[in-house]
Amino acid sequence: MKGRGGSKAECGMKRILVIDDEPSVAHLIGLSLRAAKVHHTLEYCSDGSQGRVKAAQGGYDLITLDRNMPLVGGAEVLAEIKRSGRSADTPVVIITAQKDPEFQKSVMELGAAALISKPFRPLELARVLSRLLGEGDEPAVGAGQEADGG
User: Fold this and answer.
1) 75 in a domain, yes or no?
2) What pLDDT score was predicted for residue 73?
3) What percent of the chain is modeled with pLDDT above 90?
4) Is 141 contained in some domain?
5) Residue ranges making up the domain that contains 21
6) What is the DSSP string of the chain?
7) What is the mean pLDDT of residues 82-96?
């Protein structure tokens, strides 16, 4: 399967940046992308400060971001990403356990492409991510079930 935007290296590989203080989230995102047959490389940052530095370097096809992060909060990181020339157009998916409607409204106004609530189902996450990346297949029923947790 060939990705769009021929500038990506390695046969259309999608570069994903996961900014989350829970390493298990990065693992579940990887499982979800494999279930959707999205060819990807995944980079992980465990705090907001490190994440904003990586995001500022650009070159990512998608960024996922937690709300509650050590050092710099997710909303602040999102605002910086959207102000950055290199990553301003990169879709950012907020993944959070927070159900605060005001926060949800504020991150969408800041330019988040989607908001996904934790705990999430990997198949649902796969659908959102593959849609935003513009490739992949609809995940097969049962794919990633062992990581579903619910």
Assistant:
1) yes
2) 83
3) 37
4) no
5) 12-135
6) -PPSSTTSHHHHPEEEEEE-S-HHHHHHHHHHHHHTT--EEEEEESSHHHHHHHHHH---SEEEEESS-SSS-HHHHHHHHHH-TTTTTS-EEEEES---HHHHHHHHHHT-SEEEESS--HHHHHHHHHHHHT---PPPTTTTGGGT--
7) 89
